[in-house]
Structure formats: C-alpha cells, structure tokens
C-alpha cells in the first residue's frame, strides 16, 4: 500500500511497538468493548438480538484490532492494510443475504472513541518525555485514522461483491421482515415462502461455535426434517454459524425429536421458542428462540438444548454475566460455591413441588440423603427457600446453565 506520511523516528517507533506489545494480550477484552459500542450505532435492534451475528461481529472487531497491533509491532507507525479473511467474508455475505446494510463508518467512529482513549492512556503511561509522546501520538493518529478509512472502504467493497452474488436475498429478507415485526399478510408470506402460516409453529435456532463445523448444522437439519413427517419445515441460513428453523403443524410440534438430534449431533446447539399460531406465532416463537440463544451465549453456557419456556425468568434477571453473578451471590451466598450436590438437591426439591420423596426418586438417592442436603443447602443460602423459592430456583438454574460464572471478575 502507498505510504502517506514519513516513518516515525526510531525512539517513537520503539515506543509504538512497546505499547502495542502491552495491549496485544488484552485484545479480546478491548475488542468486546469496541464491538459493544460499534454495534449500537451500526445495526438496527432486530440484528442486535441475534447472538450468532453478535459473535461474528466481535470476531471482526478482534481481527481488526489484532491486525493493527501486530502490524505496528512489526512496522511501527506505518500504514496498515486491512485483513479480510474467509470468516469475515462469510459474515459480510450473511449480512447481505438478510438485507442488513451496516453503517461501517459510524461503527468505526464509535469504536475509535473508545480505542483512542485507551491508546492515549497507554502512550501517556509509557512516554515520560513530552516531545516523544507528541511524536508517538502524531504518527499513531495518522496510522489509526487511515486504517479506519481503508477498512471501511474494504468492507463496503466486500459487501458489494456479496450482494452481486446472492441469489436468495429476497426470500431471506422477507423472513427477516416477518421476524422483526413488519406488517404482512399471511397469504403473501405463504406464497413467497411456500410455507403455511395458518398453523401452529415452533421456532428454533441451531448454531455452532466454530465456523468450520457448519456442515454439522446442515446434517442436523436433514435429520430433523426426516423426523417431521406430516409437518412443514422452513429453514433460513441466518449466518455462517447459525440456521433459523420453523416447524409447523395442525397441533403443537413435538420437540423431543429435536432434543434427541442435538444430543447426537457434533457440536450443534439448539434454542427453542414457545409454540405460537399464525403469523404472530411464527414471529414470537422465533424471537423466543433468539432470546434463549442470546442467554446461553452471554452466560458462556455449554448447554446443547435450551427451551425458552425453561429459562425465561433467567433471561429477565441476567442481561449480562456480571449482573447474573451478582444475582446468584445475593441470593445464594455461600451456597453458590458449595458442593454442587447440595445445589442440585435443593433445585430438584423445589422443582418437585417441595416433595422430598419425588426429589429423591429423580436423583436416585435415599430420601434421608436428600433431606440432609436440602437442609444444609438452605442453611448456606442467603435467601431461604421457604421465603422466596422463585429467586432461589432461578439462582440455582443460573449456576446449572453456567457453573463457571462464579469465576468471572465482578464489575
């Protein structure tokens, strides 16, 4: 690429290299902060609810950040060429396929507001000499701003190429419109999608964490379709790593086949919405499934099958990992880090309607053992189960979904 400014002096170059080396180990956390800021201004609310796109967006920001830092370690203060790898290209293609046109310039503007402040702090801490600090900030400001301009131009070019090569954009855009709440006649939607709307629907989101495992998604969907004789199935390729699926029928679709498939599929995970009827049910069940997926992703859970009806309260109480941790600690206290057998006994006891005999049968344990564990768990818990069983059960469910949540740093 053409160089647009003179190279920095050796002292400034070494300072830039040192600051980049110090920031590189924190790239993931910094990329999360940049992504959160950028997504709020470059996407509409419907996109923000899609956890799979959120993960891909974070990867894009992480890739941008690592590219700039590593390039400045190798060639401090020089112009950095944007890197658009296969995963980013696929992500842009997913956005185009769903009719999403992000404002890359606004996203970069928001991210620069956070990134430049962090850069100032690190440079000020490293450069004791005022003149050296001025030189470092002068050249790094040019390099960072040019990188933003080059990145926006490159992303727009990739988006244009993706749009020209996308033959299914119209159908996917229609699904996106329905899912986001746009008014639409049922007969129009049925005709365009070749899928009956005047029936019961269950929305599912199938996804994998590794883009290289996307083939497993399609295998799982083939298996799911084979179990749904007499029902209609609609599948949309939401992103490289996720698929949106709707099952419909004259009565509420049975979810047991889906649960069985995901337990045997390689690395595939499923979130399921509550059943609904007609176009509104099609939409609401899908939104439920997206919310369940977002909950699993933000809590860092490894659960493979999640029904939104089972976690709706958890979703309302835990909009981020830090608040989830605070809720658990405030509710359970020492029980949160006690023997997991105590927590499991107490949760099962509540779920069984405070029936010790049923809880013992479900846990394949002696009734006296369950009584002792429940009693000990209740002693350790800050909130007693007899005072607020709903909060106690919710906190226990959070730990069941994401036991490692206790290891995150409180905010």
TrEMBL record:
<feature type="domain" description="CdaR GGDEF-like">
    <location>
        <begin position="191"/>
        <end position="294"/>
    </location>
</feature>
<dbReference type="InterPro" id="IPR051448">
    <property type="entry name" value="CdaR-like_regulators"/>
</dbReference>
<protein>
    <submittedName>
        <fullName>PucR family transcriptional regulator</fullName>
    </submittedName>
</protein>
<dbReference type="Pfam" id="PF17853">
    <property type="entry name" value="GGDEF_2"/>
</dbReference>
<dbReference type="InterPro" id="IPR042070">
    <property type="entry name" value="PucR_C-HTH_sf"/>
</dbReference>
<feature type="domain" description="PucR C-terminal helix-turn-helix">
    <location>
        <begin position="342"/>
        <end position="395"/>
    </location>
</feature>
<comment type="similarity">
    <text>Belongs to the CdaR family.</text>
</comment>
<dbReference type="InterPro" id="IPR041522">
    <property type="entry name" value="CdaR_GGDEF"/>
</dbReference>
<dbReference type="InterPro" id="IPR025736">
    <property type="entry name" value="PucR_C-HTH_dom"/>
</dbReference>
<dbReference type="Pfam" id="PF13556">
    <property type="entry name" value="HTH_30"/>
</dbReference>
């Amino acid at each position: 690429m053409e160089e647009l400014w003179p190279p920095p002096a050796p002292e400034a170059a070494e300072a830039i290299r040192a600051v980049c080396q110090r920031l590189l180990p924190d790239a993931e956390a910094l990329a999360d902060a940049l992504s959160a800021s950028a997504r709020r201004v470059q996407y509409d609310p419907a996109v923000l609810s899609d956890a799979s796109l959120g993960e891909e967006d974070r990867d894009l920001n992480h890739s941008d950040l690592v590219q700039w830092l590593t390039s400045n370690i190798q060639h401090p203060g020089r112009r950095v060429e944007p890197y658009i790898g296969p995963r980013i290209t696929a992500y842009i293609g997913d956005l185009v396929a769903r009719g999403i046109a992000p404002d890359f310039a606004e996203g970069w503007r928001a991210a620069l507001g956070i990134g430049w402040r962090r850069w100032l702090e690190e440079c000020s801490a490293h450069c004791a000499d005022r003149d050296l600090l001025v030189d470092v900030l002068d050249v790094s400001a040019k390099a960072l701003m040019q990188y933003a301009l080059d990145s926006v131009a490159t992303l727009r070019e990739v988006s244009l190429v993706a749009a020209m090569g996308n033959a299914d954009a119209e159908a996917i855009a229609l699904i996106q419109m329905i899912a986001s709440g746009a008014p639409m006649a049922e007969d129009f939607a049925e005709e365009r999608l070749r899928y009956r709307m005047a029936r019961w629907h269950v929305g599912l989101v199938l996804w994998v964490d590794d883009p290289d495992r996307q083939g497993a998604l399609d295998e799982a969907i083939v298996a799911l379709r084979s179990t749904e004789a007499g029902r209609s199935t609609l599948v949309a390729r939401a992103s490289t790593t996720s698929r949106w699926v709707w099952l419909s029928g004259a009565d509420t679709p049975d979810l047991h086949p889906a649960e069985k498939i995901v337990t045997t599929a390689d690395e595939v995970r499923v979130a399921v919405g509550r059943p609904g009827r007609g176009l509104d049910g099609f939409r609401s069940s899908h939104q439920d499934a997206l919310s369940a997926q977002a909950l699993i992703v933000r809590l860092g859970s490894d659960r493979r099958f999640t029904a939104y009806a089972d976690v709706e309260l958890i979703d309302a109480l835990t909009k981020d990992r830090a608040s989830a941790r605070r809720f658990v600690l405030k509710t359970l206290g020492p029980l949160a880090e006690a023997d997991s057998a105590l927590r499991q006994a107490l949760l099962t006891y509540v779920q069984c309607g405070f029936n010790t005999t049923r809880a013992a049968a479900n846990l394949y344990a002696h009734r006296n053992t369950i009584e002792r564990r429940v009693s000990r768990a209740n002693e350790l818990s800050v909130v007693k189960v007899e005072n607020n069983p709903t909060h106690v059960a919710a906190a226990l469910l959070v730990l069941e979904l994401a036991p490692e949540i206790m290891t995150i740093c409180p905010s």
